[in-house]
Design goal:
Structural class: alpha/beta
Radius of gyration: 16 Å
Number of domains: 1
Helix content: 25-40%
Strand order of the largest sheet: 1-3-2-8-9-10-11
CATH superfamily: Alpha/Beta hydrolase fold, catalytic domain
Length: 208
Amino acid sequence: MRPAELSFVHRFVPAGDPDSDVTLLLLHGTGGNENDLLPLGKALLPGAALLSPRGQVLENGMPRFFRRFAEGVFDVEDLKARTGDLAAFIEAAIVHYDLKKTKLIAVGYSNGANIAASLILLRPHHLAAAVLFRPMVPFQPDIVRNFSRLSVFIGAGRNDPIVGPNAPEELSVILQSGGADVSLFWHNGGHELGPDDVEAARSWLNRQ
């Protein structure tokens, strides 16, 4: 029987490599679901376990991880509450699936990248590293926590019509100010995920 904290609809794929103790936490974009990023996870780190929850908020029928008032205007109170719910899910999943807490890496795209960034700002001890594709600054933190043990890859689009170029750079500065090791990669396209993003993130993960 699953604990109550595992209330997120999700997929769990055990590690394909018996020697791997890494789990990728896959966080989809708006309108995605628990299946969307499984191929991406397998491409980024073959053999790793995959934990992929579905966002619990619906916007015009499309799953998201938190509410927003408009494009790029977040309901910060809801975002912080949903971040706490995600943290509780992570903790329960670690116990339920017998995962190694110190080897959990978030991989988020768009809305999923934003809640992953929120998780870093509020509860950085939950992650060993993060791959954030097309993130914004989820909110301005009251305090900058200690991120010195955290490595973060940010994949930004030079021509992204949703996320302006200042947002990933600002997020990078915030994380670096707390001691995080941040790598910022620029995709020459827009908000879509490109093969160059995947290859850059895969190479970065292999170096971690």
